[in-house]
Amino acid sequence: MSSKRQSMMPPPPKPPTSLSSTITIAEHASLIGTHLIAIGSNTVVHPRSKLNSTYASITIGNNCIISERSQIGLQGEPEGEERDGILIENGVVVEVGAVVEARHIGEGCVVEVNARIGKGAVLGKHCKIGPLCEIADGEVVPNFTVVFGNGMRRVDRSGIEDLKLKMVRRQVEILRKLIPSKPDKFQ
Amino acid sequence: MSKKVAKGEYIETDTGNKVSRRSQIIGTTNIILGGKTVIQAEVIIRGDLLRTLSSSTGDKSSGNPVAVAIGRYCFFSRGCELRPPGKLYRGSFSHYPLKIADHVFVGPSSIIEAALIGSHVSIGSNCVIGKFAIIKDYVRILDGTVVPPNMVIPSFSVVGGRPGRVVGEVAEGEVDGFDLREVYRGVGNS
């Protein structure tokens, strides 16, 4: 379309990335910023997800699922420990529209639709943050906690974490077939 | 007379669908739009999340598999998202088709992962409809509601809160308010 107006702003900086060879990253995913973005093996990054490493680096583990419109990365200037960057462990599922600014997200966590995790927060292993829930800046959430409703919490003692990790792995296998991957665009 | 046609916000199809140029529709061959449906800017429709169950019979289904089927006179406000839900069934993970009936209004920034939405449903803004929820006809979902996964909402109910609970019923007089034909006519190409 010749009548399409080009944006006057310069394109956002392409971050240095360290992408594993087995990841599935959609063409319309958005990786911007200046710090390193490292993504582990078998991870799926849906289109329209935003990984922003302008303020700190991002490290994502293996077997993770980053859904559409989610925003991973600090949105503002870090103070103190947040400068280390964001670390997301293996098997984490970040659902649609979630905003993750946490310092550390433990293995197997599920961050549901439109949840917000504040700066410097630390999530334990196998936590579940319900839809639209918010975790305050700097908060430490213990392992196996489920955050739901209007700030209510409970601890999940069912002991089925391995099954949940297996489920995420199955989901990743299917998504790899459905989403065409274009890692070269981001290398 | 000038032959230059101004590029409007919406692309209008033969069946009367008005799709915004700034919507982000993925996998368009697997999406069925009923007709006279409005899709505003920044709407995401994931037509690429198809059912991946292995078919046991040898014959192939004719045509494309359907990921999202939408009825007539639907209205998808800015920023909302339609996503076919997926689950682990008998050891294998698969997505299931999302079926939406006629006259469904979805408010801005809502995220729909339901299995089935009936006709004349009005969904507020910033709602989250969990996976595999079934919403029957003539339901009103208030703003900011989180409908938990697998919930079945009966007809004529008003649902609100987190988690979503039935908080009231749709009165007889309000039933005509769900009709979206006037809303469709009001959408212009300005």
Largest interface: A-B, 25 and 27 residues
How widely separated are the two ends of chain A? 28 Å
Round the Cα radius of gyration of chain B to an integer and report it: 17 Å
N-to-C SSE series of chain A?
Answer: EEEEEEEEEEEEEEEEEEEEEH
- Overall, the morphology of chain B is globular
Low-confidence stretches of chain B: none
Q: How far from one another are the termini of chain B?
A: 20 Å
Number of strands of chain A: 21
Mean pLDDT of chain B equals 87
Query: Helix segment count of chain B?
Result: 1
What strand order characterises the main sheet of chain A? 2-5-8-11-14-17-20-21
Rg of chain A over CA atoms, rounded to whole Å, is: 16 Å
Lateral strand order in the biggest sheet of chain B? 1-2-5-8-13-16-19-22-23
Instruction: Please outline the major beta sheet of chain A.
Output: 8 strands, mixed
Q: Provide the low-confidence segments of chain A as ranges.
A: none
Task: Please outline the major beta sheet of chain B.
Answer: 9 strands, mixed
Structural class of chain A: mainly beta
Percentage of residues in strands of chain A: 25-35%
- As an assembly, this protein is heterodimer
List descriptors.
heterodimer; A: 187 residues; mainly beta; 8-stranded mixed β-sheet; 7-stranded parallel β-sheet; 21 strands; globular; B: 190 residues; 9-stranded mixed β-sheet; 6-stranded parallel β-sheet; 1 helix; 3% helix
Notes on the structure:
Chain A is mainly β and 187 residues long. Chain A is 10% helix and 29% strand. In chain A, the strands form three sheets. Chain A has an eight-stranded mixed beta sheet. In chain A, strands 1-4-7-10-13-16-19 form a seven-stranded parallel beta sheet, with no helix packed on it. In chain A, strand 20 and strand 21 form a beta hairpin. Chain A is globular and about 50 Å long. With 190 residues, chain B is mainly beta. Chain B has one helix and 23 strands. Chain B has one helix at residues 181-186; strands at residues 10-12, 18-20, 24-26, 31-35, 38-39, 44-46, 68-72, 75-76, 81-82, 86-89, 92-95, 98-100, 105-106, 111-112, 116-117, 122-123, 128-129, 134-135, 140-141, 146-147, 152-153, 157-160, 165-169. In chain B, the strands form four sheets. In chain B, strands 1-2-5-8-13-16-19-22-23 form a nine-stranded mixed beta sheet, with no helix packed on it. A six-stranded parallel beta sheet of chain B has the order 3-6-9-14-17-20, with no helix packed on it. Chain B has a six-stranded parallel beta sheet with strand order 4-7-12-15-18-21, with no helix packed on it. In chain B, a hairpin with a 2-residue loop joins strand 10 and strand 11. The model of chain B has no long low-confidence stretch (mean pLDDT 87). The interface between A and B is medium-sized, with 25 and 27 residues.
